[in-house]
Amino acid sequence: MAKLTKKAKTLATAIDRDKLYGINEAIALARANATSKFDETIEVALNLGVDPRHADQMVRGVVTLPKGTGKTVRVGVFAKGAKAEEALAAGADVVGAEDLMEIVQGGKIDFDRCIATPDMMGVVGRLGKILGPKGLMPNPKLGTVTMNVAQAVKDAKGGQIEYRVEKAGIIHSGIGKASFPAEDLRANFDALVDAVVKAKPTGAKGKYVRKVAVSSTMGAGIKVDTAEVSAA
Q1: Rounded to 5 degrees, what are φ and ψ at 161?
Q2: Distance of alpha carbon 128 from alpha carbon 77, whole angstroms
Q3: What PROSITE patterns would the database entry show (predicted)?
Q4: CATH superfamily of 17-69+159-224
Q5: Which among 7, 90, 125, 229 could disulfide-bond with 150, CB atoms 3.0 to 4.6 Å apart, if both were Cys?
Q6: Are 160 and 75 contacting, i.e. CB atoms less than 8 angstroms apart?
Q7: Where in the chain is the domain with CATH 3.40.50.790?
């Protein structure tokens, strides 16, 4: 059996794996255990009572974290003419049409979020096998296929994140950096959970939010008492 590192021993004693913590205590513990040399992300895992293989149990959407993500988000926009100029003026990092399609086809994806005007979806559709698996395919329901590209770019830059339930019924999402004040992380946590609860699908049966855990990038998961998660 491998020896525990000093950090692992500290974590093992600091976190009771069987205890359900209050949200504020869980966030405080996650921040305290984020001792890497880089600014770790504080992450939330929501285990939902859904089976996403069924269309009526898919949970997906966008939410704006009020205190931001702490990350610099690079935004790519598929648009032409005046809409391309709007996107650039709003702060988009990469803007193009067929030329941008060729760059992506060549294997270079220099953006974290992708937005497109409706008239460009014929071009973007050819990139489905590249953008789809990376979660970058523009989608009207998520506000990333829109004529209002300027607002979409500002939203993406201003703390808007996309959440999506995975095959096992779990949503993983960052809610900020360990360097954030605890109250900012709590505000972002509440915004995420509120959005996920409101997105409860019609096909969900029984308890919806079954388990919640908070962790830092390199830290152990800290179980949260779901009784504290409103309307779960």
Answers
A1: -125, 160
A2: 15
A3: RIBOSOMAL_L1
A4: Ribosomal protein L1/L10, rRNA-binding domain (3.30.190.20)
A5: 90
A6: no
A7: 75-157
Note the pLDDT tens digit of each residue in 49-98.
999 889 899 999 999 999 999 888 999 999 999 999 999 999 999 999 99
CB atoms within 10 A of CB 98: 12
Helices (H) and strands (E) in the chain, counts: 8, 9
Give the list of residues 6+ apart from residue 212 with CB closer than 8 angstroms, or none: 44, 45, 46, 47, 193, 223, 224, 226, 229
Domain with CATH 3.30.190.20 in the chain: 17-69+159-224
Q: Which CATH class is domain 75-157?
A: alpha beta
pLDDT band at residue 13 under the 50/70/90 scheme: low
Token duo for residue 78: 């598929």
Strands 41-48 and 94-96, sheet pairing: unpaired
CA pair distance 199, 139, nearest whole angstrom: 16
pTM of the model: 0.81
Mean per-residue pLDDT, 17-33:
91
Q: Which residues contact 81 (CB under 8 A, 6 or more apart)?
A: none
Mention every residue, 6+ apart, whose C-beta is less than 8 A from residue 52: 58, 59, 165, 166, 167, 169
Radius of gyration of the chain, Cα coordinates, nearest whole angstrom: 20
Write a three-state SS string for 168-204: CCEEEEEEEECCCCHHHHHHHHHHHHHHHHHCCCCCC
Residue type, 20: L
Contacts of 184 (CB under 8 A, 6+ apart): 67, 176
Interhelix angle 23-32/182-198, rounded to 10 degrees, is 130
